[in-house]
Amino acid sequence: MKHVLLALCIVLSGCKKEEIDNRLIVINFNTQDTLEVERGYVGCGDFWEAKERCVALGEGWRPPTIEELRLMYQQLHLKGKGDFIQESAPKTYWSSTESGGYLAWHFNFETGVAHYYNSPKTTVMNVRAVRALN
Hints:
Layout: H1 2-13, E1 19-20, E2 23-28, E3 33-37, E4 43-45, H2 47-55, H3 66-75, E5 92-99, E6 103-108, E7 113-115, E8 125-127, E9 130-132
Antiparallel strand pairs: 1-2, 2-3, 3-9, 4-8, 5-6, 6-7
């Protein structure tokens, strides 16, 4: 409850607070949703493995939508928060946003661009989990 009230205060005040209690926070000002972003990347895998890795973190954890990845890029990565680019890992992250049965959207944190046209679900990419705080 404390975190929900704190997140609500941040939304109402218009502040773009990136961290609360040492957690990474993203706020969608259009929907008023507040998300916690997993501090470390959950690992690499194809689309289905990525989803399983997020859910395995526990209650409420899931892969982000493509819009949530854009917010993570804008509100965290561009400010040097979140360690989204690892030297030895892909610079791309799976989203939960599908584009038909064979493709899904991903976001490239090196270029800041979202893609689906070359993202078969069998491709290995990073995944970063999120969960709702409100």
